Amino acid sequence: MFDTSGKFLRKWGEAGSGDGQLFRPAGLAVEKNGNIIVVDSGNNRLQVFTPDGKFVGKCGGPGKGDGQFDQPWGITLDKDGNIYVADWNNHRIQKLSPEGKFLMKFGEYGKVEQPEDSYEVTYLGPYVAAASEREGYPSPGKLNHPTDVAVDTDGDIYVTDWGNHRVCVFDSEGKPIAQLVGDAQVLSKWGQQTVSANPDMEKARRRVKSLEPQWRSVSRRRWSTIRQATTSSSPTASAIGFRSTRRFAITATSRRTCRACPTPADLGPLRLS
User: Fold this and answer.
1) Contacts with 74 (C-beta within 8 Å, 6 or more apart), sequence order
2) Which of 30, 48, 100, 174 is least surrounded, with the fewest CB atoms within 10 Å of its CB?
3) Is it the case that residue 127 has pLDDT exceeding 80?
């Protein structure tokens, strides 16, 4: 723990599975009373600590049932103190009460399909094909290893759908309403190195009519498209959070960048037509 100037204050925890012990902690959130909820990812649970690091309680456990987790990752709280967890390997988001009781879940596994005669920009896609320009993204509501979640003041829920290279927006009931798309015009350094080292991939890029699928992180079909709000230079958005200015920041892992974007409230209606 650090103060606002970056000065170290204290630390707590040790490796293990007992109360107060941690195994690959992946995220945290601070409650209004100052208590800290830690995503104990390796132990598939949440643990609560006081500001000075004393163990208070826990919830969760390994599994696919309601309130259970499989490598949980990101976490956030809404204005009522409800807890939202990106349940990474269960490909879903779970909502819990402030006491840790299960309230709601949404999302199921869905991945980018690789078309024939295509090459992959990253090992999870997106894909660019000479014969087919179809991008093959999964239908709304399907997730592939979500890594983080955020809730705005209107109750809309933002999910970094890491494996599908997009940020999905859901309403307070977990129904999909919009997506955020990337607009970088060039490959990342990592992506360019991959292409340059593969002559067949380089030739495939020259054959296609449009390279848009390689830099746009999501398909435009069936969704409202938000060109102003983008994931900057990478399709693999991994973390998201809101500022008091009603803007949110998205961390892009492939480019190691973070960009602030306007919220949907600033851009106008986002509902599906």
Assistant:
1) 26, 27, 39, 85, 86, 146, 147, 148, 149, 160, 239, 240
2) 30
3) no
